[in-house]
Amino acid sequence: MIASTTPSFETLEQALKHYFGYDEFRPGQRAVVEAAIAQRDLMVIMPTGGGKSLCYQLPALLKAGLTIVVSPLIALMQDQVQALQDNGVEATFLNSSLGLADTRQREAAILAGSIKLLYVAPERLLSESFLPFLDQVHQQVGIAGFAIDEAHCVSEWGHDFRPEYRQLRSLRQRYPQVPMMALTATATQRVQDDILHQLDLRDPFVHVASFNRTNLYYEVRPKQKGAYSELLNLVRQTPGSGIIYCLSRKKVDELTFRLQQDGISVLPYHAGLSDKERSENQTRFIRDDVRLMVATIAFGMGINKPDVRFVIHYDLPRNLESYYQESGRAGRDGEPSSCILFFSYADIKTIDYLIAQKINPQTGEPLEDEQRIARQQLRQVIDYAEGTDCRRKIQLAYFGESFAGGCNNCDNCLRPRPAEDWTIEAMKFLSCVARTKERFGMGHIIDVLRGSRNQKVLQHRHDELSTYGIGKDHSAEAWKILGRSLLHQGLLDETTDGYSILKLNAQSWEVMRKQRPVFVTMPDRKPEARDATLPQRREEAERLFDRLRGLRKRIADEQNVPPYVVFADSSLRLMAQSMPQTLEEFGQISGVGSRKLEQYGDRFIMEIISFCQERGIPLRNAASSAKPQDDASPGAPSLSSTHFYTLDLHLQGLSPEEIAEKRSSALRTVYDHLEKLIEAGRDVDLDALVPPERQAVIEAAIAQVGAFALKPIREHLGEAYSYEEIRLVRARWRSQSTAID
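Predicted structure:
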């Protein structure tokens, strides 16, 4: 039994379903929640959309006392509190947007013990006027824990360092027994180490999830003369909400104006707008009153909209960490989304100018260390844009995560160019790194290989090395592509202190000993344009989904909240697939908790029934309290929301293996779902799972030996046919037989 105030729960899953409507935890969440309930310090590195917030919200509801969430932006904390309150959770925030009377009222509610989660900015939390109130809370109510959101802001090595975050360490001295949880979506190993040190976390439970966002498609396009027309086509062809990032306020305003002139529903967002205008524009975007936002990078961190379907960087980002976070605003609900980067060498000059502005405000002298690191980070972005390896492989390598490549969801994987065997050249390159004592960067290594007689080569007497001039048969660009690919493939390392010194690793020596081949893809300078239209749903489900979105928007407007606070897109899609017609059926949908079932169940069920009647879709017994049954045939297997979730992923074009990975399920479970869905007469594309010619052979075997057991069918067919194929074909056979009967 978990100790908590009423209601009490036998399992964490019961609490999860009650408060948030989910049947199961996402990967890693349960272990984090258990550690938090056990009063441990934690560091949680989870990508955007991975479920970080739940890691501290659920423990807060199950522990005694007040959990204090440190959040950097007013808009972000307001959105999260709104979503929690809509789930029936006692949460509030304190910030500068409140008047004195409202602030006092909320403080009184906190001291009365009626609030479980308090969101506050670090500046207010550590102010001399607020700390006495915090002491009072600690004495009267108890502080259950501190959750430091966007914890990468603690580290000067992070992409969004904020000095005030450093002062949060004082919480450890003031409240030594109160556990602390640091959470962020983006942190290299160096940033992770700095977070642990700066916050003085004690024996922390550390969870680093995979940075791989499998639902995101990544692509780099050259930004040429007709780039705006290409951008406009992308926006028109890609359904749903989107964000376009630009480097400057001027570019944001220009692009917004052009898009508006072309009939696109779009608003700008940058620091040159008034606070009121920025807030209004963001609110209209979050509430689906406007479809598109053109913004500078300042917009990314404050947006809490899960159903952004595409993010376009019209200008080059400053570093890979920022790009990962900004592009990660797409598809936070787990649905397929696109991330497009327009690459122009002209942008490099703009960013280099901005880097040159990093100066000491007191002395006016350049901050050389910061400038050096920023320029190295810019080179890494250029390497990503020019890279021919799997985009995910490059991104994940930046965060220290190994990935084999071949994601089949980026431009380089979907339109691969022939890979060439460059093992001999790689041996030459790595040997040159070794003979120069691992003290130089890529440019110098290439100069030595190509026999350059520049001053640096001659000064270090590298013209006397055995590797000098052995690479004259390839251009400097080709050697650069090889060096970049060696880094992306993990066959070579590079220092991250701004100097970009190449270092050998164990895999480097395997290459030099001829134990590991190296294949490199040479770039095609004219990449084929990709149709960015996202996968289309089946007609009926898509029309119902649109109807339910309309209902969600009306309810959201009535309650003055963003639509996603009512239900996520993923929940609406499950409703559109399973068409629940009773409260019990509706309650089984993922994302429908007790509060939402009570609040919205009747309205959504009536909308679904009305849709079915208009379209001539047979209704199940709406008065029944039984679990959802398939209406295609009597005696069909019982289906639940988990089966329809698998069906939805299948209809998106995912293979069984990809569905299993996305759902963190066993492959056998996915085939179980597909078998039941087919037998229930659902719209499963069997041809995509089993080639038609193999279906015919299996059906002939079933006709001969019967459909009762799998083993006789397999023995009749032989080992060339798998049990999975037989199960799926047999399911359709049974479905058709039942329909005939």
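Summary: Confidence is low (pLDDT under 50) at residues 525-537, 622-635.
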